[in-house]
Every structure is written in C-alpha cells, then in structure tokens.
Amino acid sequence: MSGRPTKKSEQRPERRQEDGAARRPAKLTVASSPHMAGRDSTRMLMLDVLIALMPALIFSGCYFFGPRAFVVTAVSAAGCLAFELLFNLATRRAQTIGDLSAVVTGVLLAFTLPADVPYWVVLVGDFFAIVIVKQLFGGLGKNFMNPALAGRVFLFSFPAVMSSFPAVRQWLDLGSTVDAVSAATPMAALHDGAVPAFTLQEMFTGIRGGSLGEVSAALLLLGGAYLVIRRVIRLRIPVCYLGTVALLSYFFPPAGVADPLEWMLYQLMSGGLLLGAVFMATDYVTSPVTRMGQVYYGVGCGLLTVFLRTYGSYPEGVAFAILIMNACAWAFDKWGKPRPYGRVRSRREAAE
Q1: Could you state, in order of their start, the residue ranges of all structural domains in the chain?
Q2: For residue range 97-152, what is the model confidence (pLDDT) as tens digits?
Q3: CB atoms closer than 10 angstroms to residue 351
Q4: How far from the centroid of its chain's Cα atoms is residue 245's Cα?
Q5: What is the mean pLDDT of the chain?
Q6: InterPro entries, from UniProt (predicted)?
Q7: What CA–CA distance (Å, rounded) separates 255 from 288?
Q8: The predicted structure's pLDDT at residue 174
Q9: What is the pLDDT of residues 10-65, one digit of tens each?
Q10: What is the reported pLDDT for 342?
Q11: d(Cα 349, Cα 237) in Å, to the nearest integer?
Q12: Residue 142 CB: number of other CB atoms within 10 A?
C-alpha cells in the first residue's frame, strides 16, 4: 500500500457513483412462482383455436351450408375486430387486435348462428360480445363470461331469426326456385322426448340441421383432439361436462324411450354441446384454474344443460349453462383450492 495521498480528482468518480446509486432506486420485479418463461403467447393460443375450428368451417362452407357460411364467419370476425379497434381508439387504450382474441370471438359467435342469418344481426351480436361483455369490463382477461356465448344469448332478442335453420346441402340444388328451406333440428325432437329422425351416422358426420358450426360431431372432435395435442386445453372440463350429460341421459331417459344408449348418443351429438364443451367451456378467462374447481365446473355445466334441455322453454341449454357456470367460476376455485402439504384444516375452516 502506497503512502501517496489520494488526489481529489481520483475520489470524485467514486463519490459520484455512490451518490448516483443512492439516488437511483433499485429495480426489482418479482413475479409469482414458478419463475419459468414459456414460448406460448395469447396470439399463439388463439391461432391454435382458429386452426382447430377450420375443419368445421371448411366443411360447413364447402358442403353443408355453402359459401354463405364463409361470408357470415368473415363478417362476424371483421365486425369483432372493428369494434375492438374503435373502442380502443375511443378510450385511448393500447390496440389489442393483434392478439387474435377478437377474431376467435367472431368465429365462435358465427358458429352458433344459422347460416342464413342476416348480416346486421351478426354485427349486433359482435357489438354486444366485444364492447359490452369484453371491453367494458377491462378487455381480455377481465371479462367474467364468454363473449361469444353472451352475444348469442343476446341475439335471442330476435327469436324468428335464431330459431330458423336452413336445410343442409340445400345450396347444392341449383335448379330450385325456393330461396330458403327451414329444416328441423334434432334438438326440437329431443325437447319433445322423441328420438330425432336422423340416423346416428348423420348426426356424427353433420347431415342434419343446426347452427353453422355445430352440425358435425366428427369435425368438432377432430378440432378438440388438435387442441389437446397442442396442450391448449385439458380434458378435465370437457370430460366432466360430457360425462355428466351422458350419465344423466342414460339413466334418466324420458318415458317411451326404448334404448337409453341411443338416447344418450343423440343428446351428446345434438345442438351445440360438443362445440360448447370443447371450445367455450374451456375458455381460460371464464373457467376455474384449480383442478377440483374445473371438475365442479364441468359437472355443473352438464347438470344445467340436461335440466334446461328437459324443462326449459327453449330446446337448447348449452349457452345458458356455460354462462351461469362462468359466473360461479370464482366459487369453484375457492372450493377447489388445494390444501397446503402437511397442514391440518381446523373445524372452522372446514365449515367455511
């Protein structure tokens, strides 16, 4: 160590550095554990959902209901994008149309509508889904119910439009002079306690009446398998939902039904049950996150669906069942919260 005195000029940088460090607050960002980053993003998840919906859309537009199915879906997706863009501009929020969530909402809403629905009705449903249900509650991740299903239920304000479904493959009859032919749906017969006039093969492939994207059970299951393989959704909610409907339909068929198994299969493949169980009940934002909470949620959706189909004035009950369970998701998470390892619950906590 040298005895040479230290010059003031040599001390200044150290003092400046120390003073600056004292004045500058340390930046520390702590996230919830586990501290692990993944490659998934909202855009990638929404893109996977759109890919899973493509088989049903392609066959609906090319075979079941004709090119108008593509137009209705495109109008619905464009309307949702436009309403989200305009709302963000009006409220000076950051634009979120790039995450594709509005496109998914538009496509799902179109899937729940008749293929010959007027375009202005589609836009009304888009406005309600995006502006009222999604954006007014804070945007993606803060809505408490599924926007597409809420838009569909709101459109029940136009019962004549929402209860008339075009016949499958009618558009192929190019020589017909009739503008549109309404077809009976399987849900109308099931609501009356009768087996539909369609075979199980027609129900599985999609040769029967219904909404634009719900007619083919095979294509919806194919899209669901893709989402499971991509780990976008887990089987817990769909299995509990469909399993509850299957058990209740098998063990409690209406009087006069000779084959409970056949009745159960018709119930599973009719209406929007598969579309709702696979693509809507599994919505990350509006469904529980705990394992037991998801079980309660799926069972509750199944119970309400069967109850509404049997005793409700409207033949279908999927949309109402999922929306009601969306409102109860927080309670299911509370009830399904796992107990910390090694901790014994007191009687008071167990009662609560």
Answers
A1: 42-169+181-335
A2: 999 999 999 999 999 999 999 999 999 999 999 999 999 999 988 999 999 999 99
A3: 7
A4: 18
A5: 86
A6: NqrB/RnfD, RnfD_bac
A7: 36
A8: 52
A9: 444 444 444 444 555 556 565 655 655 556 788 999 999 999 999 999 999 889 99
A10: 61
A11: 27
A12: 11
Interior angle at CA 105, CA 104 and CA 111, nearest 5: 90
Domain 42-169+181-335 has CATH 3.30.70: no
Distance CA 309, CA 316 (A): 5
Rounded to whole angstroms, the Cα distance separating 270 from 56 reads 15
Q: Cα 348 from chain centroid?
A: 37
CB 69 within 8 A of CB 115: yes
d(CA 74, CA 11): 69
Q: Which residues contact 290 (CB under 8 A, 6 or more apart)?
A: 332, 333, 336, 337, 338
What whole-number distance in Å separates Cα of residue 302 and Cα of residue 25? Answer: 53
Distance from the Cα of residue 119 to its chain's centroid: 22
Nearest 5 degrees, angle CA 220-CA 226-CA 232?
A: 110
What is d(CA 232, CA 283) in angstroms, rounded to the nearest whole number?
10
Burial profile 49-62: b = 16 or more Cβ within 10 angstroms, e = fewer: bbebbebbbebbbe
User: For a pLDDT cut of 90, what percent of the chain falls above it?
Assistant: 67
Rg of the chain over Cα atoms, rounded to whole angstroms, equals 26
Closest residue by Cα to residue 162 from 55, 270, 315: 315
What CA–CA distance (Å, rounded) separates 288 from 335? 10
Least confident of 86-95, 128-137, 146-155, 179-188: 179-188
Q: Give the phi and the psi of residue 177 in degrees, each rounded to 5.
A: -95, 0
Nearest CA among 349, 325, 339 for reference residue 291: 339
Report the predicted TM-score, pTM, of the whole model to 2 decimal places: 0.84
State how far the Cα of 6 lies from the Cα of 204, in Å rounded to an integer.
89
Give the type of residue at 341: Y
Retrieve residue 284's tokens.
């990350």
